Amino acid sequence: MVGRIPVVDVTPVVDLGRLPAKATVGEPFPVSATIFREGHDRLGAEVVLVSPTGERHPPVRLEKLDEPVDRHRAWVTPDAVGAWTFEVHAWSDPVATWKHAAGIKVPAGLDVELMFTEGRLLLERVRAGLDATGTDADARAVLDGAIAAADDRTRPAEARLAQLLSDEVGEVLTAHPLRDLLTIEGPYRVFADRERALFGSWYEFFPRSEGATVDPETGAVTSGTFRTAAERLDAVAAMGFDVIYLPPIHPIGEVNRKGPNNTLTPGPDDPGSPWAIGSKDGGHDAVHPDLGTLEDFDAFVERANGLGLEVALDLALQAAPDHPWVTSHPEWFTTRADGTIAYAENPPKKYQDIYPVNFDNDPAGICREVLRVVKHWMRHGVRVFRVDNPHTKPVAFWQWLLGEVRRTDPDVVFLSEAFTKPPMMHALGAVGFHQSYTYFTWRTAAWELAAYLREVSSESDHTMRPNFFVNTPDILHEYLQYGGPAAFKIRAVLAALTVPSWGVYAGYELYEHVAVRPGSEEYLDSEKYQVRVRDWDAAEAEGRSLAPYITTLNHLRREHVALQRLRNITIHHADDENFLVFSKRAALRQAQGPSDQDDVVLVVVNLDPHAARETTVHLDMPALGLEWGDQFVVHDEITGAEFTWGEHDYVRLDPFHEPAHVLTVRRPA
Predict the structure, then answer these.
(1) Which one of 27, 369, 417, 599 is the catalytic residue?
(2) 417 has catalytic annotation
(3) Alpha-carbon distance 298 to 379, whole Å?
């Protein structure tokens, strides 16, 4: 039933409360509700956050929004990993009702003494609930003075009212509100994950390419190993990345093995696709013999952790035709009418080297096996998994698997690689995936970027955390194919500074941009099917590397709390439709408590990689923590330049020099 004070449309609530909303330790999230009552009396509302141990945090007052009508919101912050709840409390507020009436009647000379009598009675009710010692003693003294003023008919009515409405009295009444007709809605479920679930910079490389060599006479390629790949970790860490993501490291099938550029005619030395998992050398719990041993993998993880990198491992639930599962559990796959096992297809793409898993025949057996595999790698130091094509498996399976892992190891993070329809993407996030790939790659115009940023930051944020990858081994957008180095800078700025998690696939920093054919998003000589040897040192020495720029972006992400949050982005306006202007703002906190300082980063990007453009930008000053009409200083973190800006500012950006201003904002003195 509706409570005495109706509280409806509470958010965040996922699947009618059956699933927890997403939260992160240290990140504020909004609680909102539509709250109203009959008549004209005033009401109050607050949200109470309850920790996994049952500790009730101090209530936070819900503030009424300008729109929609009767909508209220407050921001709360969990401080520990685990299952939290929140409650929304609403009540009739007799003090606010009295203030409203007295503010009208006393100046008009209507019911003056009645107003003061009613005010005194309310203050006495508050005073009766205070102790005689400590901070309550100070509050009692403030109320004593106000009560005396209410009764003092020798003073002008305006002076008496001013004392009752003073800030000092208001602070006491806010701290000790009178709650009549209290209504409590909830509890509502929220799960707070560790920070890596929200914030991180990901770098993807193929271990077999790192340290690989080519015989100059025969052209034969010798695969890199975990030990040679570990030598690349220093450079990855130096660029400021937090997560090193490895595509599948397992034995690769020999049956229907793919050759270069996804051909069906591999040579004897072609390594095949790592996603064609399983051979006579083992399955999902084994490592490819060319990469080394399980002990070598352990050493790789240890080296990465020592550099501040977490290792993310690919979890691809599929099998090569010669995977051990195919023999031991043929019921785990789909058998066609002619007796053959169906291979994977995504027309026009065909993956003859991969058998999808069919969950319909033995779901319990598959569940047990996948959980065993995941826990095997967890025991070897993997606390982050990137899951391949989760949208091709049952959502109920993922809810079970992720729930089982969360129950014992809530620090383990799962990233969903699901480029699919929004309902499936959101459902996967709702049932437990901590992060999700997104449509960022295909959002290139300012208007569609602005719309998408609003969506992921404030519409789907309770179910899905975005990770903006600028490229993947499968996705090379035409913007990068034809945009030149400026396009790579532009996309890096957008991915790194709009959302807390972003990702880079190796080769991006070398501006690799050639597609296998016009109109395709696949790389020519894709690393999925062959080893790619890159000379990183020569590229940097010759100035052909974006690594220094990426390093600057990742440094800014670590230095600025505002860039580590999802729900704090504001889109500003520019006259030229080729510009995207956005800011991110977060309150800074000091050891002694909240400060009045904000961390504000303002970014202006020319999205046209081919031409210099100029525009006037129009800033939402309150969103920057500033007053309309303020003048303030901005420091460009890319070039070091400083400018004095205001509400309207002229900008010219040449992509052949720098396509973006990345500005830190200094408050006016």
Answers:
(1) 417
(2) yes
(3) 10
